[in-house]
Design a protein that fits this description.
heterodimer; A: alpha/beta; Rossmann fold; seven-stranded mixed beta sheet; 12 helices; B: Rossmann fold; 8 helices; globular; PDH/Transketolase (chain A); Transketolase_C (chain A)
Chain lengths: ~300, ~240
């Protein structure tokens, strides 16, 4: 099985063949995946060198001429370092594009914190009108990437990860999907956190919602899911900062008594290397820890 | 672009000339903070819009139009005066400058101002956007439009400009042009002068008197095959 990022390169290369409006902008990272595409479309695969402000600024300039730019690098260098370019060269100009990140929160654990971006979705939440897709499987990534490329002038962020679920699920680019139904609470599993959540909640009487599009937040499905319970207890399990979606849960359930447990990556640096599963355990996101935290919350 | 109202048609027989610009600028009171910055761009803007740019109210939606990106968005009175004089929007918008319901803010907003190619105000965004615009036009087979971007000498301090400068020079973006208004406002400046910075990156570059219309015109229209072009327009120091 290829990774989400490998799928991104192959799918986007095909999309460049299919849609003359698309252009890819890179800042060295990921360029090997586009060698053939760059030969076929030299003017629509742009590598600006290690210059991330220029990566996003060029994307904005391409969009001003009517092209749809797809910009790619690691999440820290795509969203954090050039944040003002994301803020001003797209939304403020009234144009759109697609940001596709790799690396996520812990994909390269031995690389350390410089290459981790658990704050990326929270940072984008300070901006208006961004769609955020967090696929949990390469097949889902393909569907969401194709949707993002075709989404007119929308602003879309697609967060790819090495972490992935065993099996793909149907995704529509908008709604949460109900995978289990229960009465003791609702657990929202985001993207690659689904497999750990399913393992953690095995045998529990909870609803499990699977989210691969987290912005706009699917308040309707969440409300419908919590309607079956008495008081609404909601747990979010996110592969980025814990609590990133708590605000949206609160807004969705503003008129109802409810509690929220936001699980995800800690703000405090782990300062550890090692392997992905060690980092998940370090953030309390392995199935065993999740089960303890979820049952502790639901048990009041 | 624009407010949704149709862009007014230019009436060339009565459109204001350069000498009417101070009067137009006088309609916009209250922007005292950027006064010196406002006039530093006036002559260069006028020469561009009057003699160089293929851009007019009739072409605001034409993909073959030249682009002018105002990156130094501070003190936009000169820019608004020139746009109004050229008929991009009514002169009677000028007195509302900076008011709540006015489309004319103290930094221009592309979404509100007919003829404005970018919203600007935070420094250092225009040149990278201009690079992307030049690339986008080329990718669509549009080799005719020129892309111009105006930056200030102090604005050049922003690192984003150097990312754009280095890339544009290395890749020979011939349709890209940068106008640097040098009113000596940078604290540190550039050893060897601004033009040398562009030349070191592979650009064609020249320095002219920013008040001399003929010199400006010659610098703007000088050929620069295979290279982007930089014009440094020197005007009196900001605090003079």
């Amino acid at each position: 099985m290829d990774t989400m990022r490998e799928r991104f390169a192959s799918v986007t290369s095909r999309l460049l063949d299919e849609d003359p409006r698309l252009a890819v902008v890179l800042a060295e990272i990921g360029k090997d995946g586009f060698t053939d595409a760059a030969q076929r479309h030299p003017e629509r695969v742009v590598n600006v060198g290690i210059r991330e402000q220029l990566l996003v600024g060029v994307g904005g300039g391409l969009a001003l001429t009517g092209l749809r730019p797809i910009m790619h690098t690691f999440a820290s260098f795509l969203v954090e370092r050039p944040f003002e370019q994301v803020k001003l060269d797209f939304g403020h100009q009234g144009v759109g594009g697609v940001l596709v990140s790799a690396g996520g929160s812990y994909d390269w654990p031995s690389g350390g914190f410089t290459h981790m971006a658990p704050g990326d979705v929270g940072l984008l939440d300070t901006l208006d009108g961004w769609t955020v897709h967090v696929p949990g499987h390469p097949d889902e990534a393909e569907i969401l990437l194709r949707q993002a490329a075709a989404a007119g002038d929308d602003k879309v962020y697609v967060r790819l990860s090495v972490q992935a679920n065993e099996a793909p699920r149907p995704v529509d680019g908008a709604r949460f999907r109900t995978l289990r139904e229960g009465r003791q609470g609702v657990v929202v599993a985001v993207g690659p956190m689904l497999d750990p959540v399913l393992a953690a909640t095995e045998g529990l009487d909870v609803t499990v919602l699977y989210a691969t599009t987290v912005r706009p937040f699917d308040a309707e499905t969440l409300r419908a899911a919590t309607g079956a319970a008495g008081e609404a207890d909601v747990v979010t399990v996110e592969p980025y900062h814990a609590g990133t979606s708590t605000r949206f849960v609160n807004e969705a359930l503003l008129d109802r008594s409810h509690r929220v447990l936001g699980l995800g990556v800690s703000r405090q640096e782990l300062r550890r290397y090692g392997q992905l599963d060690e980092h998940l355990a370090g953030h309390g996101l392995d199935p065993h820890s999740l089960r303890e935290r979820i049952t502790g919350f639901l048990g009041r | 672009m624009g407010t949704g109202m149709g862009a007014p048609t230019a009436d060339t027989s009565t459109s204001p000339g350069f000498h009417e610009l101070p009067g137009l600028m006088g309609l916009m009171t209250g922007d005292e903070k950027h006064g010196p910055a406002a006039t530093s761009t006036l002559d260069a803007l006028w020469v561009l819009y009057d003699r160089v740019l293929r851009a007019s109210p009739a072409t605001v939606a034409d993909p073959e139009r030249d682009r002018f990106l105002l990156s130094k968005g501070h003190g936009p009175m000169a820019y608004y005066a020139v746009l109004a004089a050229k008929g991009f929007f009514p002169v009677d918008w000028l007195p509302g400058f900076g008011a709540y319901n006015s489309p004319l803010g103290h930094h221009p907003d592309r979404v509100l101002v007919p003829g404005a190619e970018i919203g600007s105000g935070s420094l250092g965004h225009g040149l990278p956007l201009a690079v992307g615009t030049a690339l986008g036009l080329r990718a669509q087979g549009r080799t005719g439009p020129a892309v111009w971007v105006l930056i200030g000498d102090a604005e050049l301090d922003e690192g984003s400009n150097h990312e754009a400068l280095a890339y544009a020079g290395a890749t020979g973006l011939e349709r890209l042009h940068t106008l640097v208004i040098d009113n000596s406002s940078a604290t540190h400046g550039w050893r060897g002068g601004i033009a040398s910075r562009f030349e070191a990156a592979g650009w064609s570059a020249t320095t002219v008197d920013g008040r001399d219309h003929q010199a400006l015109y010659e610098a703007f229209s000088a050929p620069h095959p295979g290279r982007p072009h930089g014009v440094v327009a020197r005007v009196e120091p900001k605090d003079a």
